From TrEMBL:
Lineage of the organism: Eukaryota, Sar, Stramenopiles, Ochrophyta, Bacillariophyta
Residues that bind ATP: 88
Family named by the database record: Belongs to the protein kinase superfamily.
Pfam families found in the cross-reference section: Pkinase
Highest taxon listed in the record's lineage: Eukaryota
Protein name: Protein kinase domain-containing protein
Molecular functions (GO terms): ATP binding; protein serine/threonine kinase activity
Keywords: ATP-binding, Kinase, Nucleotide-binding, Serine/threonine-protein kinase, Transferase
Span of domain Protein kinase: 59-318
Length: 348
């Protein structure tokens, strides 16, 4: 069955009990105090361990930019440097296990990569945890896919490869630091700006966790239906599940619909477990063999044979497409410069 990319999908089977031992509160700007927290504060502020008022440092605008199951995102302004940021306010009462929220904040505090969301600050009061991040204005990759999908496909191979390269660089960074994302999908990829060549940012580390080399396989099937790998659904998986998700995203970027489809989550899961997919003429008739081979390497059913993020970055489709993209950018700049010189001559 071929259909358009799915409506905004929900996370499924999110009941992880595979959390590692409780981590220390993350060292955000407001948790670096050297004084000891009172028992009351530890009880009221289990995520950061200390209560702080975000309004002391930021003015939060009332307009909601986006909302989800656990909270909302709004704009805010730093009261000192007047810079604009985004703040995600999470209602603690809606979180089943606050140690998972603590883990998310902890992991975000350790991130330092151009293609991963940058957490600026974090606050906790009696009802909320407020995560302040850089503000990204380009929107979700999911919405761009919806806007660009036609009967002939979605993005060009060059643009698809550029986006996938950035995602893979983020994933390679995570895996090198023994972190597994577990929910890579277009909804969790933002464009930094509305520029044609805008950088992308991987967001939402709510399902992420550390998984060290040699550690027992993860067992909880968490994630979002269309992007879950066969071994994840079977309950025995490692970091290679992220590479599978990138392969699904790559497939969708090119043609506009997912490789494993169904009307219900169980139907989607069955299609994924079988691991069989094809490149029908709709959206694939003019696509290169290199692109198809790249996707096949990421969607290998056996995770032992599946490419790693580093290997995927070395695939000819990614390398050649990105070289071509850079040549196009260079030619565009030369043409713009040439036009500017002609205009100067005319005015002279």
């Amino acid at each position: 069955m071929v259909s358009r990319v799915s409506p905004r999908s929900r996370k499924v089977a999110v009941v992880p009990n595979d959390a590692p031992a409780k981590t220390a509160p993350p060292k955000c700007a407001k948790t670096e105090s050297t004084r000891n927290c009172s028992f009351y504060e530890e009880d009221q502020c289990p995520v950061l361990g200390i209560r702080s008022n975000i309004s002391d440092d930021y003015h939060i605008l009332p307009r909601v930019l986006g909302s989800g199951h656990y909270g909302s995102v709004r704009e805010c302004v730093n009261r000192v440097d007047r810079k604009w940021y985004a703040v995600k306010s999470i209602e603690k009462s809606k979180i089943g296990r606050l140690d998972h929220l603590q883990r998310e904040v902890y992991l975000l505090s350790k991130m330092n990569h151009d293609n991963i969301i940058n957490m600026v600050d974090c606050y906790e009061d009696e009802e909320h945890v407020h995560i302040v991040t850089d503000k990204y204005t380009g929107g979700e990759l999911f919405d761009k896919i919806i806007e660009n999908t036609t009967k002939d496909g979605c993005f060009s191979e060059v643009k698809s490869a550029r986006i996938i390269k950035s995602i893979l660089e983020a994933v390679a960074y995570l895996h090198a630091n023994e972190i597994v994302h577990r929910d890579i999908k277009p909804e969790n990829i933002l464009f930094e700006s509305n520029d044609e060549d805008s950088a992308i940012k991987l967001i939402d580390f709510g399902l992420s966790r550390r998984h060290q080399r040699g550690q027992a396989l993860m067992t909880n099937p968490v994630g979002t239906a269309y992007y879950m790998s066969p071994e994840l659904l079977k309950g025995k998986y490692d970091k290679s599940c992220d590479v599978w998700s990138v392969g699904v995203v790559a497939y969708i970027l090119v043609c506009g619909y997912p490789p494993f489809n169904g009307d219900t989550d169980p139907e989607i899961f069955e299609a994924i477990k079988k691991g069989s997919f094809s490149f029908p003429s709709k959206g694939w008739s003019d696509v290169s063999d290199e692109c198809k081979d790249f996707i096949k390497c990421l969607l290998r059913k056996d995770p032992r044979k599946r490419f790693t993020a580093e290997e995927a970055l070395m695939h000819p489709w990614v390398r050649h497409s990105c070289i071509f993209s850079k040549k196009q950018e260079l030619l565009a700049r030369i043409n713009k410069l040439t036009l500017g010189v002609k205009n100067v001559r005319v005015h002279c």
